[in-house]
């Protein structure tokens, strides 16, 4: 699979406790991206954050949150990201979604493989 040099990055900001049909939302997003044959997806867990509600979510031991902030990042071509957005809307009820243009410098196995 190739990604065009000028691609898009889709960032989805959600909470760890967010669900879609009983499954963790981040998992549902990654599995849907894989099903759609997108180039790849990564879930990043934040140590601290807040969103629309301004409620602080932290991994501080004294205030251990069960809803840490997560960011799902997906990079692919413009057409693939645009085709994925309506499906993402069906999975999500809240959160923040951003799309940016990026330059892909390398994608694929290392030269040693």
TrEMBL record:
Span of the signal peptide: none
Gene3D superfamilies: 3.30.70.120
Family to which the UniProt record says this protein belongs: Belongs to the UPF0166 family.
Protein name: DUF190 domain-containing protein
PANTHER family: UPF0166 PROTEIN TM_0021
Coiled coil: none
Organism: Aurantimonas aggregata
């Amino acid at each position: 699979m190739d990604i065009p040099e000028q691609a898009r990055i889709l960032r989805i900001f959600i909470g760890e406790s967010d669900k879609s049909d009983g499954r963790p939302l981040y998992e549902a997003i990654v599995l849907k991206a894989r099903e759609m044959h997108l180039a790849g997806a990564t879930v990043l867990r934040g140590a601290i954050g807040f969103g629309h509600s301004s409620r602080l979510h932290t991994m501080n031991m004294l205030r251990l949150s069960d809803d840490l902030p997560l960011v799902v990042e997906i990079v692919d071509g413009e057409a693939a990201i645009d085709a994925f957005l309506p499906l993402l809307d069906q999975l999500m009820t809240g959160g923040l979604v951003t799309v940016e243009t990026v330059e892909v410098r390398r994608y694929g196995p290392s030269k040693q493989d």
